[in-house]
Structure formats: structure tokens, C-alpha cells
Amino acid sequence: MANGFYSAVTLAAAFVSACSTPLADSGSGARLDLVVADGRIDLVAAKPIVLDDAPRAGAPAPTDLAWSFVAAKGKVLARGAVGDPRLVHVERQPDEEPVPQGDLRAGAGAIQIEIPDVAGTVRIEDSAGTLLGTLEHAPLRGDAFDAGLDDSKSDINFQTDLIGKPVLVSAAAPETANPINLLFVPEGYRESELARFHSDVAATVATLSQTDGYLEHWGEINIWYQDIRSKSSGISDPARGIVRDTAFNITFGDGKTLPRKCLMPSKKWDAKSVSNLQRLATLTNADTMLVLANATERGGCSNFSAGFIVLSAAPEFNPGEGLAHELGHALFALGDEYSAVGSTSCDAAAPNLTDNLDAIPWADLIAPETEIPTSTSVGSGVVGAFEGAGYCETGVYRPEANCRMRSPGPTFCAVCRREIERTFARRATAVRRATITNRTGADFWMQCDGRTGTAVCTGWTRVAAGASRELAMSGGRLIIDTTTIAGAPVRWSQVRVDAPSAAFSIFANSDDPLSPAGE
Ligand SMILES: [Zn+2]
Question: How many Cβ atoms from other residues are within 10 Å of residue 325's Cβ?
């Protein structure tokens, strides 16, 4: 987007949907947070789990990394695929030197895998079969390991660096059933500077509260902040030789693997920082984490699969304006409507984008007399199909001439606005806890579609044939999966279903899992 803001999107959900296919079936397991870099794998955290509740899913995509877990005698105990977390997507930067469009490869990234808790070796290969690294695993035997708890450089200590509890600075109306929770955390603010962090949050929130789309639903949003001290003031800037010791190790890009104005956790400590951000998110059940960086110039970057947005607090950057666009991605799944000269890496997978004029998702909003494709000469406010969107000048279409998802300044277009309204309406009526009965005739797995591992969003849960289990769903939606169950009457892989009521059944019907087959 504009406003000096980048989006770095890991192409598959590294922390959300690492797929695994344990071949040794049940018992104690370990969930590993790893840094993957060329030539090495670092262990960040390891947590004991019951492996029986792990997801069994999915065919690897071409950009995936393949991992395996091998016992001493060479037997493969588990294997799976995970999106390559080193791939990031860079958005347009109008007032800086041109940057490469499409996918960039950072030096390292963070993934999460699940393995049986026995001695063995984790091996990770890229899609071409090149070995990236190996890691020896010693059984946890019930003890969690967390490198993020030590007090070394580039890390926060949860006991001493967090100050107080999360503070609610703007509260949703009490009658709101399922408010959006946004959590601000400070990056590069010393303890003595936290009052300025509070005023930087207030300025950003004031802008957002007056922005169309948010203004009308302000009573359905909770805004929180958590005070966290950094040892240094400001953030690191490798291209200029500046090193700071900060809470989340956010740095300017090095200008090589990532553009300088893309603010992201330093690649060396990526997984620690991402793990710590995710742990903080559970404090407030945050839908999205907003890392406010104490920088004196504009910049930002987003990692939507890990659920956080980094914003420079520099006032001339107007972080509230940037946030309104980035939350369009994070909360409402809107796509970028701008294009770049010469780009061939298009993206039309969003409700406000299409590459098919015969099946425009917003066709019902187009007046009969409007020509398709639509010329920008019709002026603003007309809904049609305007060529040039999703990073490409041709072949992808947007709903209006202008929109907040195309450039800063205009309001959201009618189609983006409808998606925003739909999201709030869905949240208002979402079934947040349900008892789900398995009538498929075979076991399946289910989980909440959201940030799992909290009281309001249950992680992977196995439901035996004929059994019922309860599931908490913060967004009212669940994911079902059957992919490795032999004999399953229907094979699902990460199928999403909106919970219709507080008690319902799942049937073996690939068209509609909520209805018996044939109805
Ligand atoms: Zn964008």
C-alpha cells in the first residue's frame, strides 16, 4: 500500500497450519517452534502435547518446505509440509526507490511442527529437495523448553520486562457479543518513554476511530495496550549500522533481503519474537497485534499469518491511516487494489478483486447500464469492474475507481465496505461455543478458525465416530479435517464451516457437512 507501508506475508500460515502426518500414532508428542535458515535450524521453544490431537492434513504446496522426523535407526516417525516462512511479499512504496515486486526470500523464518516425543532428528528440505538443516530432538518427558524465557539480548523476560497488565484504552459497548480485540505493544521504548508510547497509541487510535468502516463500529472494538520495556530507545537499522536492544528485535530492512522501510523482527531472532508476540496475544485474546515502533521516520510491515502488524510511530507517517488499510487485510480479508508497472505476480484471491469478468463477486452491486470493464472516466462512486488491481495493471479488476485499499485518502469502496459490514454482522451472531456430534461414521479433527490455544478458540481436537465434543470458536467458525483417516467416507482438508447453533452434527457430505448426504 501507500504511505510508506509494506506488507510481508508468509505465503502459507507458518504458525497457524503446519501440517503433520505422524506415522507413529498416539501418545506424547512435542510441538516445536523452530527458526529455519540456510544451513541451520534453531530450536526456540518446545512444548509437550498429546499427539493424538494434532492435525493430520494437507498436500504440500509448491512453495512448501518438507520436514521429517527420523529415529536413530532411520525409521521415519513423522513428516509433513509447511509453507516456506522465508517468503515474504512486499507492497508498493510510492516515494522510495523501486523495490522488487512479488515474493522475496528473507534469510530465515519461523515454523511450528509437531512430532512424537522420542529421540530423533528433524530434517528440513526445501521444495527442490535441498537439505536446509537438521536438529537433534531429545525427549521432553513433560518439561517445556523455552529459549524466550532467558534474559539475554534480543529477548523479553515475561517476569521483569512486562509492566502491569493489559490496559483497556477504548472499550466496546457492554452488549457487544464478540468484540474485535486489538492489542498495541511498544517496541524500542525505554521504561521512561512509556508515557510517550501511551500518547502515540492514543493518536493512532483517535485517527482509526474517525475512519470510515471503523467509526460506525467503534462500539464493537476493544483497544488494549501492554507496557513492555525495551533496553534501548529506537530500533535497529542494519543498513546504517545502528543496533538497538529492543523487546521484539524489530529492525528496518537491510535493503537486500527486505526493503529498508519494511519493519520486521530481525531474521536472526524471528521465531523468538514471533513466539513472544503470540504469547502476548493470548493475554487479551487479541485478533491482531499492533507493534508500535519508536522510530523517527515512516515505515511498517505486516505478517498476517502470524497475526501482527508493525507500524512506525513517527507522526508524519500517520500510523492510524496506515493501520486502517492494514486492518482491511487482517480483519476483513480485503486485497490490495493497486497495481505496479511491469508486475506479473497478480493476486485476485480476495472479495474485492477478480480476474473473471463473467463471475464478478460484487455483480449484484453493479448497475445494469454500467459498462464492463469500466472506464475510470465514469468518475468516483460508480461500482463496476476497473482494470488494474492485485499488483497487476492488466487482468485483475477492482470494484471502484478509488478505494482505501488502492491508495490512502479515499474511503473504502462500496464492495470493501460491504465486506466490513458482513464481518461485523457475522461476529455479532457468531456461535462461540458448540457441542459438535460426529455422524460421519469415521473419526475427524476439528479446530477453531482463529488464534487457537486460548479459552475462546480451541485447537485441534479429535472427534471419534459417534462421539460429541465441545469447541470454543472466537469467530463462530470451525475447520474440519479428515485427510489421513483411512476409510473416511469423505476426505476433507481444512474445510471451513460456520457453526449454525450451540449443538449440531457433522455428516459425511462433501457438499454440505452440516446436512446428511443426499439432502
Ligand atoms: Zn495493502
Answer: 27
